Amino acid sequence: MVQVCNKGMDFVLESIEAITQVNAHLKQIEDLAAVYYREVSENQIPILSGGGSGHEPAHFGYVGKGMLTAAISGPIFVPPCANDILKVIRFLNRGKGVFVIIKNFEADLREFSQAIYQARSEGIPVKYVISHDDISVETSNFKLRHRGVAGTVLLHKIIGQAAYEGASLEELERLGLEVATAMATLGFATKPATILGDNHPMFQLEPGNISFGIGIHGEPGYRTVPFQSSEILANELINKLKMKLKWQDRESFILVINNLGATSKMEELIFTNDVLEFLALDELEIVFTKTGRLVTSLDMAGLSITLCRLQDKKWLQYLQAPTDAFGW
Amino acid sequence: MVQVCNKGMDFVLESIEAITQVNAHLKQIEDLAAVYYREVSENQIPILSGGGSGHEPAHFGYVGKGMLTAAISGPIFVPPCANDILKVIRFLNRGKGVFVIIKNFEADLREFSQAIYQARSEGIPVKYVISHDDISVETSNFKLRHRGVAGTVLLHKIIGQAAYEGASLEELERLGLEVATAMATLGFATKPATILGDNHPMFQLEPGNISFGIGIHGEPGYRTVPFQSSEILANELINKLKMKLKWQDRESFILVINNLGATSKMEELIFTNDVLEFLALDELEIVFTKTGRLVTSLDMAGLSITLCRLQDKKWLQYLQAPTDAFGW
Predict the structure, then answer these.
(1) Taking the domain A10-181, which CATH number applies?
(2) Which of A235-244, B2-11, B67-76, B310-319 has the lowest mean pLDDT?
(3) Could you give the CA distance from residue A159 to residue B303 in angstroms, rounded to a whole number?
(4) Tens digits of per-residue pLDDT, B87-120?
(5) Taking CA B254 as the corner, what is the angle to CA B248 and CA B259, rounded to the nearest 5 degrees?
(6) Helix (H, G, I), strand (E, B) or coil at B159
(7) For the segment A136-178, what is each residue's pLDDT rounded down to a tens digit?
(8) A24/chain B closest Cα distance in angstroms
(9) By C-alpha distance, which of A131, A27, A142, A50 is closest to A98?
(10) Enclosing H/E stretch for B101
(11) Judged by CB atoms within 8 Å, which residues 278-297 of B form the interface with A?
(12) Of A119, A133, A130, A128, which Cα lies nearest the Cα of A173?
């Protein structure tokens, strides 16, 4: 796929106009579909993330105090091109380098890697982490898919706050690897996304059916079943997460319930209650819960569960620290 | 309509379970579909609001520091009954009385008025304000409909913070009246709401069409037209709001863009940008902007604009004050 830098960007640039007018602490990086935090300290390592658009409030909504220093977007569901990412890295670098959080999608990896390679060759120290929390199953070969989905926001917050508190580039890399490997995400959709200006759904899903293990780019899931109840959905997802994370009683976990966009807040809350009940049965200690529309897929309806084992108590402090990022 | 206190409340009680588990500062008032702020000072006048459920994060999402002291919900789109409201008023009263914020719907007024009447007869001083910001037009008689819709959140925040800073019951009543009469709201839907567990939309709206002046309880709007562009929608709504608010160049206003639920965040941002451009053409000074899913109607897709004339600079301080209410 040839990446064209400037096509299909009208929606994104209009969004940035609104975001920077409404949030005084955010500013556009000139000529780029990128937003940065105006009040960042010169002493901290800047944190960059980004990807395709259509996942709002990700990623611009996570730019702010103790989270991302900047985010860059491509067109809907298409990552920004390497050259633009490189410009943002140069813009952010104050001599100490830049840390980058990348979601595990082929196109994202290609563009971000190329930008990082180029930046390093210019003498800018860059380290990164790849979020790969998705544990859906490929229907063709039954292998796990490790796309980067809702768990990515935990990396934004934990790494962002660690950088704010003065962590070095090497410390951020170590922390990123620890957090990225401690978590897993699985979700379902009740309605596929439709691309703006197009009335066709991105995959087929009859009303009343749900699809397990959907992606955030309109990819269909691994299994479609009729909707029965929120409890049964919670049970299916938690069983699969338990197989992956292999928890013991009384372990401490961080919980994220992500609303993929068009699910009502009431349904999100009812599902959250079911999830908390199942986790209580396993006597897990849920030390931090975040719910809401965190990483969406336009107007897709659906929910996902992310569980992250609390391997270090510092992570909890990082999560609890205040931020002015509007998506958190 | 006979009000049955305990029917159709399962969804609401499960939501409350989730809310109180996830938010340590919120607690259920025993045996009631009501939530209160645990850390409220004994010295302030407690603020109560509520209504039917299905509008999440309203109203529980506005309980917190410098906002509501408590909120009570009825079943979906049905207000709580007077007797339950009365119990919450008694629970909140510490001798200085209680201030209540009510949305202007017939059933809400009936239940809240009865509760207030009874509380007063028991010697509890109660004052209230009615939010009536909606300016849609009745198709039958061309009269304005003054339902309480998204602008209600401005009352929650401004009155809540004034109470937190020590305003008396009389001062809150005066402030409430000033704010309630300074604002107007108008919106449109692109997709009707569906009640949970029911696949039938609450009014007919063909895909690709939009309905102006919809309600938040599944009421249809005053005019249905094919969707053309976000700009044209913004223009129509702002013209109607200007006819009502009759602003002059360079006046200061507060802006709320409310997402009715299922509209994507990207569409909300694009619409926000269009609204800001039209207001800039009129040289209005927008001193404060709040966007997001503030008062929803289950899974209805649509957006509304609220404009509130800044009659007093104190209002801006009240709006800017920090809060831990999860819906703000």
Answers:
(1) 3.40.50.10440
(2) B2-11
(3) 35
(4) 999 999 999 999 999 999 999 999 999 999 999 9
(5) 120
(6) helix
(7) 876 667 677 789 999 999 999 999 999 999 999 999 999 999 9
(8) 10
(9) A50
(10) strand B98-103
(11) 289, 291, 293, 296
(12) A128
Q: Do B264 and A296 touch (CB under 8 A)?
A: yes
Chain segment A50-87, per-residue pLDDT in tens: 999 999 999 999 999 999 999 999 999 999 999 999 99
For residues A184 and A181, what is the distance between their CA atoms, to the nearest angstrom?
A: 8
Please give the Cα distance from B287 to B268 (Å, whole number): 19
Residues listed for chain A: 328
Interface contact A22-B291, CB threshold 8 A = yes
For residue B90, what are the CA distances in angstroms to A165, B4, B115, B119? 46, 21, 10, 7
Return the number of other C-beta atoms located less than 10 Å from residue A105's C-beta: 22
* Domain map (residue ranges) of chain B: 10-181, 183-310
Q: Which of residues 241-270 of B touch A (CB under 8 A)?
A: 261-267, 269-270
Give me the residue label for tokens 């544990």: A135
B19 SS3 class? helix
ipTM attached to this prediction: 0.90
Instruction: Please spell the DSSP secondary structure of A66-109, one letter per residue.
Output: TSBSEEEEEEETSPPPHHHHHHHHHHH-SSS-EEEEEES-HHHH
Alpha-carbon span A234 to A282, nearest angstrom: 13
* Residue whose C-alpha is closest to residue B64's, from B27, B29, B100, B31: B27
CA nearest to B229 within chain A: A197
CATH 3.20.20.80 given to domain A183-310: no
Does residue B57 sit at the A interface (CB-CB below 8 Å)? yes
Q: Which residues sit opposite B14 in a β-bridge? A: none
- Residue B83 to residue A288: CA distance in whole angstroms: 36
Task: Supply A71's token pair.
Answer: 């985010």
- Asked if A216 has any chain B CB less than 8 Å from its own CB, the reply is no
DSSP A293: S
Structure tokens at A295: 């990483």
Mean pLDDT, rounded, of chain B: 93
What is the count of residue pairs from A and B with beta carbons less than 8 Å apart? Answer: 110
What is the C-alpha separation between A44 and B80, in angstroms, rounded? 51
Tell me the chain A residues in contact with residue B299 when contact means C-beta distances shorter than 8 Å. 262-264, 267, 301
Q: How many CA atoms lie within 13 A of A41 on its CB side?
A: 13
Residue A41, helix vs strand vs coil = coil
Closest-CA residue in chain B for A254? Answer: B22
The residue type at A281: L
As given in the structure block, the two tokens for residue B282 are 């009129």
Nearest 5°: the CA angle B212, B217, B223 is: 15
